[in-house]
Amino acid sequence: MLEERKLFVAGLPQQTREGDLRGHFARYGEVVHTRVVLDMASGNSRGFGFVEFADEAATLRALADDEMPNHVFRGRKVRRPLPPLDRRLAAVEIDAC
C-alpha cells in the first residue's frame, strides 16, 4: 500500500539538513515531518531523506508533471525516478548536475 503523504527524496547534497527539505517542499503544502539520513561519522547527509505532508494533495502537487520543469533544490533539478524505488512511497530524485 502506498503511503500517500510521504515522499522519498534521493540525491541530496551532503550539506542538506531537515530545515532545507522543509523549506523547499512547504511550497506544495503543509510539511509535518522531514528526515535527512545522516552519516554517523561525518554528520553529512547520506544523500537521501523523507518528507511527510499533512495531506495527499500536497504530495501530488510536488509530483505533478507541470511542476517538474520548475522544481529545483539547491540549484539541482528534481525529477521522478522511473521505475519507482519503492512502491510503497512516492519518490523524487535530485540530479547531480
Oligomer: single chain
Q: What is the spatial order of strands in the main beta sheet? A: 2-3-1-6-5-4
Number of helices: 2
pLDDT averaged residue by residue: 84
Instruction: Report low-confidence residues grouped into runs of 5 or more.
Output: none
The geometry reads as globular
Structural class: alpha+beta
Could you give the topology of this structure?
Elements: E1 3-10, H1 18-25, E2 31-38, E3 45-53, H2 56-63, E4 72-73, E5 76-79, E6 89-94
Parallel strand pairs: 1-6
Antiparallel strand pairs: 1-3, 2-3, 4-5, 5-6
Q: What keywords describe this structure?
A:
single chain; 97 residues; alpha+beta; six-stranded mixed beta sheet; 6 strands; 16% helix; 38% strand; globular
Task: Describe the structure concisely.
It is built from two helices and six strands. The protein has helices at 18-25, 56-63, and strands at 3-10, 31-38, 45-53, 72-73, 76-79, 89-94. It has a six-stranded mixed beta sheet with strand order 2-3-1-6-5-4.
Describe the protein in words.
- The protein is globular, with a radius of gyration of 12 Å.
- The chain is an alpha+beta fold.
- The termini are far apart.
- The protein has helices spanning 18-25, 56-63; strands at 3-10, 31-38, 45-53, 72-73, 76-79, 89-94.
